[in-house]
Amino acid sequence: MGSCWVFATIIAIENDQDWWYLSCKKCPKKVNAVGTRFYCEKCDRFDITGNPRFKIQVRVIDGTGSASLLMWDRECIQLIGKNASDLKDEMVKNSADLGYPSDIEALVDRKILFKIQIKLQNIKEYNDVFTVMRLTVDDDLISKHVTIPCFESQDSTSENEVSTPNKTPTKQSTSNKIQESNTVKRGFDVNLSTQMSSNKTRRIVKEEKN
Ligand SMILES: [Zn+2]
Predict the structure, then answer these.
(1) What tens digit of pLDDT does each residue of 111-135 get?
(2) Which end of the chain is more exposed for a tag (fewer CB within 10 A), N or C?
């Protein structure tokens, strides 16, 4: 349907321990173990090894609402500065089988400008997990992008497709530090916070597990 830039803070990691998956060596698709080998459906080929890749889902907030964002390998490497097999090796070295690598826990509280994909199911099926297409932590870029309109291809129809109340009162959060941009706030509000109001807390943030 479109895409949207959102400036938001990561507040929790939503994966259990599945912060990585084994992909095909020729493509990013997940492989299935078949005996001692791995099979990629897309490439229709077997291999004796695969590539560990990141797949991390985070909960984020901005001044107006919250949502879950799914980050794939490229964006995770960009944020963490290491690849998934590096972190796996470190976990083994530290004999830390449970929980997340500290590099992943360190994502919490980071403020990031995300470009998220808005799919039809996000709107129609109240799915609040959005896929991250790009992200940036560069301060200069953030200051520029935060002032551009949220929707890249904004027109009257896209406004109507988003079936939200016509007038959403701006919520005044006392701890709202993200007031730089009304455009980004509005976009996040329109797309996400109305879905948040259904109070779906189907995932448990990690703090509650301990
Ligand atoms: Zn493949």
Answers:
(1) 999 999 988 878 777 778 999 999 9
(2) C
